[in-house]
Amino acid sequence: MVMALGARRGKPRDPKTAIVLLIRGGTIVRSEDRRRYSQLERVIFICGRYEGVDERVAEHLATEEISIGNFVLSGGELPAMLVIDAVARLIPGALGNEASSQNESFSGDGRLVREHKVISHEPRVTRSSIIRTTRGRRSIAGGACRKS
Question: Is the pTM of this model over 0.85?
Answer without folding.
Answer: no
